[in-house]
């Protein structure tokens, strides 16, 4: 290989890894993209990741949650390792769960929850909706328990419907005679 070819490859490698987050190490891949290794760095939040990240290793950190859309700017991301983190498995992990379901469903069985108590030590893939919390998807208090008047209104409407149905039946059978 000519010297200019080696220099070009060296330049491409340096350019590709210059956006590597500080606590992580990055390696340029032959097929374009980056291998970003952030394992065991004590991360408590996701660092700013280069857009051309293809393999991302976040195992053995202190990550408890991820913001929704955390990987949306990484269209090349193929491999994600988020094991051995103290995940707080509530509705804030819905994005991670859906991302893994779409791309690597087998990973859902190796990502374990550290909290809350209802989800502790369960794989993320085995949790159901109620175990992830209500996620704010509940009716407002005014509709959740409107009181006795709501029940009275329903009884009145049901009674009126029955009276209307009885009148229609009486009219229909009366016209046949």
Features:
177 residues, alpha/beta, two-stranded parallel sheet, elongated
Share of helical residues: 25-40%
Order of helices and strands: HEEEEEHEHH
Content-based structural category = alpha/beta
Strand % is 5-15%
What's the total number of strands?
Answer: 6
Treating each run of at least 4 consecutive H or I residues as one helix, how many helices? 4
| Strand order in the largest sheet | 1-2-3-4
Give the structure's gist in a few sentences.
With 177 residues, the chain is of the alpha/beta class. The protein has helices at 3-17, 94-103, 141-144, 148-176, and strands at residues 25-28, 34-37, 53-57, 79-81, 87-88, 113-115. The longest helix has 29 residues, at 148-176.
Describe this structure in words.
Helix 2 links the parallel strand 5 (87-88) and strand 6 (113-115). Strands 1-2-3-4 form a four-stranded mixed β-sheet. A two-stranded parallel ribbon has the order 5-6. The model is unreliable at 4-14 (pLDDT under 50). The protein is of the alpha/beta class and 177 residues long. Helices cover 33% and strands 12% of the residues.
Question: What order do the helices and strands come in, and which of them pair?
Answer:
Elements: H1 3-17, E1 25-28, E2 34-37, E3 53-57, E4 79-81, E5 87-88, H2 94-103, E6 113-115, H3 141-144, H4 148-176
Parallel strand pairs: 2-3, 3-4, 5-6
Antiparallel strand pairs: 1-2
């Amino acid at each position: 290989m000519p010297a200019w070819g080696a220099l070009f490859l060296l330049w491409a490698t340096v350019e590709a890894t210059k956006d590597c987050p500080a606590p992580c190490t990055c390696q340029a891949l032959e097929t374009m993209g980056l291998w970003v290794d952030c394992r065991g760095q004590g991360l408590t939040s996701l660092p700013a990741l280069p857009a051309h990240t293809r393999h991302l290793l976040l195992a053995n950190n202190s990550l408890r949650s991820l913001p929704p859309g955390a990987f949306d700017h990484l269209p090349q991301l193929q491999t994600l390792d988020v094991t051995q983190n103290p995940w707080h498995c509530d509705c804030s992990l819905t994005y991670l769960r859906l991302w893994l379901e779409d791309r690597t469903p087998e990973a859902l069985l190796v990502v374990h929850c550290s909290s809350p108590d209802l989800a502790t030590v369960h794989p993320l893939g085995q949790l159901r909706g109620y175990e992830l919390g209500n996620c704010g998807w509940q009716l407002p208090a005014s509709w959740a328990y409107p009181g006795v008047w709501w029940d009275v209104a329903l009884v009145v409407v049901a009674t009126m419907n029955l009276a209307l149905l009885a009148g229609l039946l009486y009219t229909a059978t009366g016209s046949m005679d």
